[in-house]
Design a protein that fits this description.
about 400 residues; alpha+beta; Butyryl-Coa Dehydrogenase, subunit A, domain 1; Butyryl-CoA Dehydrogenase, subunit A, domain 2; Butyryl-CoA Dehydrogenase, subunit A, domain 3; 3 domains; four-stranded mixed beta sheet; globular; binds flavin-adenine dinucleotide
Length: about 400
């Protein structure tokens, strides 16, 4: 599988492993016990360039592309998925929407600091009415009042919003216009009153890198922080989530590989009736399924990322990759937990939180069913999954990279 990666990408992967083993692993248990967001580590991760792979150098990125971003996400999640929980807010969804739809001034003001881990990002579209139909269920209103918008309503599952310096938040400016009434805003919760983030108590997810419910009460956003035009928010969100899907798929793959690592280690250590657990053929059957699923997911994730790097239609394959990798993670976590027996239920075991993250990836950034709908409608000929390819309205990092390469 390494043959698919350039020497440069393999070198970045090695430096992530070193970073995770030396900087993150020794501190992560204490961070979880304290519940304090690890700003210093996020900053170090940003300084090392791990959030900037997709972005060009003029915004502080490394310009390495989507395949590199996928490998980085996979390796961060494989080493500690809890620390990788802010990956998308720093290196994908939040900076991507600003880069893609922002004015040059907005891009230069906000994107470099997010990629450098100096400011903490957020991407908030989901509301309590349901995330699968985020546009249909959006009740949050933004009303223009001279030089500012005043936002009222609430958001659900806004990850890192209790730490956010700069986020992208979606609200309706025209409630009667369906998805065409949604507008995107660059928000700065620490600068203006009326933004309250309350962490949601979750099972097995990080206690330090949290996801929250957000309450917006006359929350002010200056007009110059509107992202794109009024009514353009849904297009910005869809474009961003399409790009972000690949790193979410890669993170699910990283979780599957972490489960496999744990399972293999335990199968070789644990003795049952005088023989290693791994010597029993029913266990081997599960190991074989895990290994095969992982290789298949990896091929799909890397191929989808490669298509994106080449500026070719990739939405269909990205959805398949996300669906497959999240299933692979769920299966691997389930089987690993069985192999660990009772110890797979103990909080000391990594399997307990890996399993919760596997479940999360099945739901987050387009649930498994939502991916299946897109894949099936394409297969049945109802809707081409790649129909939105080629819009020139927004900046595109892959196109910029291809242009630079001549
Ligand atoms: C830990 C965590 C972090 C998150 N972080 C963020 C974030 O930072 N920003 C953000 O905006 N959101 C975030 N989310 C929200 C996430 O994107 C949503 O949970 C997801 O979109 C699904 O929405 P929902 O949970 O409201 O489920 P619903 O939309 O209510 O769906 C419930 C179930 O119905 C299924 N379903 C939906 N439609 C259909 C259909 N047509 N046919 C068959 N089945 C269907 C779904 O697959 C799902 O299983 C996060 C969620 C979690 C759990």
């Amino acid at each position: 599988m390494d043959d698919l990666l350039t020497e440069e990408i393999r070198a970045v992967r090695d430096s992530i492993v070193r970073f995770m083993q030396t900087e993150v692993a020794p501190k992560m248990d204490a961070i979880e016990a304290s519940g304090v967001f690890p700003r210093d580590l996020v900053r170090k991760c940003g300084e090392a360039g791990f959030y900037g792979a997709v972005f060009p150098e003029w915004v502080g990125g490394t310009g390495m592309g989507y395949l590199a971003a996928a490998v980085i996400s996979e390796e961060l999640a494989r080493n500690d998925v809890r620390f990788a929980a802010c990956n998308n807010q720093q290196g994908s969804t939040c900076p991507y929407s600003i880069y893609c739809a922002g004015t040059e001034e907005q891009v230069r003001k906000y994107v470099p600091n997010l990629l450098a881990g100096i400011t903490i990002g957020m991407f908030s579209i989901t509301e309590s009415g349901g995330g699968s139909d985020a546009a249909g269920n959006m009740k949050t209103r933004a009303v223009r009042d001279g030089d500012v918008y005043r936002i009222d309503g609430s958001k659900m599952w806004a990850s890192m919003s209790n730490e956010t310096d700069v986020g992208v938040l979606f609200a309706k400016t025209d409630p009667d216009a369906g998805h065409r009434g949604i507008t995107a805003f660059i928000v700065e919760p620490k600068k203006y009153p009326g933004f309250e983030a309350r962490p949601i108590r979750t099972l097995g997810l990080s206690q330090a890198l949290r996801t929250c419910a957000v309450f917006l009460d006359d929350f002010v956003v200056p007009v110059e922080n509107r992202l794109g035009e009024e009514g353009e928010g849904f297009r910005i969100a869809m474009r961003t989530l399409q790009a972000g899907r690949i790193t979410v798929a890669a993170k699910a793959l990283g979780v599957a590989r972490a489960c496999m690592d744990e399972a293999v280690r335990y199968c070789n250590e644990r003795m049952i009736r005088g023989s290693a657990l791994g010597s029993y053929q029913m266990v081997q059957a599960d190991i074989a399924d895990m290994a095969t699923n992982i290789e298949a997911s990896r091929l799909m994730v890397y191929q989808a990322a490669k298509l994106m790097d080449e500026g070719r239609p990739s939405n269909r394959l990205s959805s398949m990759a996300k669906y497959h990798a999240s299933q692979t993670a769920k299966h691997a976590a389930d089987k690993a937990q069985q192999m660990f027996g009772g110890y797979g239920m103990a909080l000391e075991s990594r399997i307990t939180f890996l399993r919760c993250y596997a479940d999360m990836f099945f739901t987050g950034e387009g649930s498994a069913n939502v991916q299946r709908i897109l894949i099936a409608e394409d297969a049945l000929g109802y809707k081409n999954a790649d129909r939105h390819q080629g819009s020139t309205r927004f900046r595109d990092p892959a196109a910029e990279r291809l242009r630079a390469a001549g």
